[in-house]
Structures are given as C-alpha cells and as structure tokens.
Amino acid sequence: MNEWGCAATKALIDSVDQGCHDLEWQGFAVRLIKQPWGELLISLHGAQVLHFRPASEHPVLWLTNRPKPFPGAIRGGVPLCWPWFGDHPSDESLPAHGVARTGKWRLVSEQLTESGGCWQMIPEETLWPDLTLSLRFSVGGDGLLISLTTANIGSQAVSVTQALHSYLSISARDSISIEGLDGCAYLDKLQALAQFDLEGPVDVTQEIDRIFKHAQSVLLVDHGWQRTLRIGKRFSGSTVVWNPGRSARGMVDVGLDQVDSFVCIEAANTAFVDPVVLPGGESICLETQFSIEPYLR
User: Fold this and answer.
1) Fewer CB within 10 Å, N side or C side of the chain?
2) What is residue 279's DSSP assignment?
3) Which helix (H) or strand (E) holds 23?
4) What letters, b where the CB count within 10 A reaches 16 and e where it falls short, cover 203-221?
C-alpha cells in the first residue's frame, strides 16, 4: 500500500524548516511552501503543482520517484495540457499535450495566510501565437484550487483543447471507488473512441482511458486511507479517467512498482466532447479543485 508518495519529495520537505524555499528537486527548480496548514511544491518548469499535502493528511497528489531528466515533462502532480490535449490534431511532430507543461514559467505573486495562500504564474515567453496564459493556485480549508486562464489577444478565433491532468495519490487501485459518473456517456480511447454509457462502478484496477461527457464533481473514495476527495471543476464538459495498468511496464517514469499508487481524474476540454473556439479578445478559465471531505463508508 502507498503510504506517503515520492520518497525524494518527502526527503526534500523534511530537510527544511517551515517557510518558503527556492530549491531543486531531481534537477528541476521548485518553490516549496511548508506551513502549519501543510505543504505545496511548485515546479517553475511547466508551472506544475507537484505536491500538495494538508497537515496530518496523506498527499493529495501523486508524483513519480523517477522523473525523466530536465527538460522533459514531469510525471505527476497536475501537468498543464495546453493548447491541445493529446496529440496535435494536424502535426504529429509537435509534442503530445502541448507546450505549456515544458515551458519556463515565473512566479509573479505569492500571498500567504494562516490557513493557506495564493500564487500566480505566467510563462517567461509566448508559448503559442495570439494566446496568453496565466495560472493561479489557492490553498485554504484543506483544499487546492487551480485556475488556468487563456486569453486570445489576436483578431481571429483560435481553437483550444486543454486539461488539468491531475494525478491523485491513492492507497491502492483496488481500495478506491469513484462516485458521480453513474450513467454518463463516455468515449473509450482503448476501443477506438467507441461510445458507451457507464453501467456499474468505474474499474481502475485494469488499464483505463475514458473521456466522460460530464461537467460536475466527482468523489474519489479511498477505503484504504478512509478518505473522501472531491474533485470539482468549472468550464469543463469532459472528465478524463486514466491509469495505464500493465502498460506502465514500458513507462520509465511509472513502471509496475508505481502504477498502483495513483489514478488520474482530469478536468478537460477535449476535441471529442467540448473543444473551445475562442474569439479574438476573449478568454476562458479552466478550473479544478481538490477538497478533503468526511469519509464515505
């Protein structure tokens, strides 16, 4: 059973006192916030929340013990898939899941409170023509809110797909249940995007890659940790549920030794369900929120 998460992250956190620290994690520049309310670890590479743990709780987010070397994409936390989700629709030479998750970002504001705080980041340079991007995190009440805002500063409409690709830490895949998707239609990426209606529970003990037509909250009930995690979202009509199962054998930053420790439940705008066409001069804000609630037995 997964008890804590990434050993390298725990060692880094244990090595410093409470406060805000600019450090290096596995070759990546990070900002570590360690406060009485808990811990937050942010990578400047990709503007990625790598770790969030409220005080006296298990980590909310999972993070690999074996990341690909810098400047590769980091597996875990909440990567930003933008301005496309999955493969680029017309140019296979472009990176999967877009350019935001491997871009260089900077922290432009940081405000701490007794119960949490608020942070804002922007890219160091333009990531995609005619589009600007900003990211905001806020912590409070044992919860984390992530907001990704895209603005079209050009005169022509631009198509965007995106996701907040959340890796959620769990005790084990056979010890969880996912509530809130009952009866939803979904596209199964393991079956050539065939559409089905969900009947019965979501089974993540085997490989799963589904896009649910779903715009509401989901509950991740972890019976091993006796924890209920609510995954909320706004401005998203696609909920992606993913775990590579035995396919993790060929993934150097997962492997069969780590695949049982996470499930991805993602707020997204996908090309198959709810692509965004953003007119010139307009913006959209994709949000996801993680909050710990009383355990549902």
Assistant:
1) C
2) -
3) strand 19-25
4) ebeeebbbbbbbbeebbbb
Per-residue tokens: 92: 């296979």
Q: What is the dihedral of CA 9, 290, 235, 167, to 10 degrees?
A: 40
- Compute how many other C-beta atoms are within 10 angstroms of the C-beta atom of residue 232: 16
Q: Is residue 8 helix, strand or coil?
A: helix
* Three-class HEC string of 185-244: EEEEHHHCCEEEECCCCCCCCCCEEEEEECCCCEEEEECCCCEEEEEEEECCCEEEEEEC
Tell me if the pTM is above 0.85: yes
Burial-class residue 179 by CB neighbours within 10 Å (0-12, 13-18, 19+): middle
- The pair of structure tokens assigned to 154 is 């050009």
The Cα 25–Cα 28 span in angstroms is 5
User: Is residue 104 within 8 Å of residue 62, measured between CB atoms?
Assistant: no
d(CA 134, CA 155): 20
